[in-house]
Design a protein that fits this description.
With 180 residues, the chain is α+β, with helices and mostly antiparallel strands. It is built from 3 helices and 15 strands. The strands form 4 sheets. Strands 1, 2, 5, 6 and 9 form a 5-stranded antiparallel β-sheet that branches. It has a 5-stranded antiparallel β-sheet with strand order 14-13-12-11-15, with no helix packed on it. The longest helix is centred in the middle third of the chain and has 10 residues. The two termini are 41 Å apart.
Length: 180
């Protein structure tokens, strides 16, 4: 551990699904700044579309603190498993990493994510009798959130209309952030 009195950013490992609780508890210390980026997205369930809120980095968040005076308090805080490090020594995260991450999150800790599809995207059907089949988005239809996809099925190509919520796009999550 460093004897430096300068606070630095560290990655804190938490118990599953408690990142925001651990971050809030540490922020209450006053000498610890936290950043716990989360995403909010919609997913189809048996109950219909449901909004979910999850950590951008499941079981991890960032905390800025002076390791020489606050390490034990952070390491033993509620919901915390430990501080990420090597050989028992916590490793600081470069300040620029947090600057870049905050810019990507547009300065908020909770950001809406859309898993929309576009014409030409390769998609996989996730529900229904065509589950697991892959196709290419041919067009968007007038119905709300419905698309026509070209599927190869039983040796021939067929144009099928499917709700976009039942499709998994080949896009990376970074490409799917929406402006809100």
């Amino acid at each position: 551990m460093s004897d430096s009195p300068n606070p630095q950013w560290y990655c804190v490992h938490t118990k599953p699904k408690t990142e925001h609780l651990a971050a809030a508890g540490l922020a209450a210390f006053g000498e610890v700044e936290t950043f716990c980026p989360r995403i909010r997205f919609q997913r189809s369930t048996a109950r219909g579309k449901v909004w979910f809120l999850e950590a951008l980095f499941p079981s991890y968040f960032f905390a800025k603190f002076d390791v020489s005076s606050r390490y034990r308090a952070v390491k033993h805080a509620n919901h915390v498993i430990g501080v990420v490090g090597f050989g028992g020594t916590p490793v600081a995260v470069p300040e620029q990493t947090l600057v870049d991450l905050r810019a990507e999150m547009q300065g908020v800790e909770v950001r809406d994510v859309s898993h929309g599809v576009n014409v030409g995207d390769t998609v996989e059907v996730t529900e229904g009798p065509m589950r697991g089949l892959q196709g290419i988005v041919e067009s968007m239809t007038s119905g709300e959130n419905r698309v026509k996809i070209l599927l190869e099925f039983l040796g021939r190509q067929s144009l099928v209309e499917v709700p976009s919520s039942k499709l998994l796009s080949g896009k990376s999550p970074r490409d799917s952030f929406t402006e809100k």
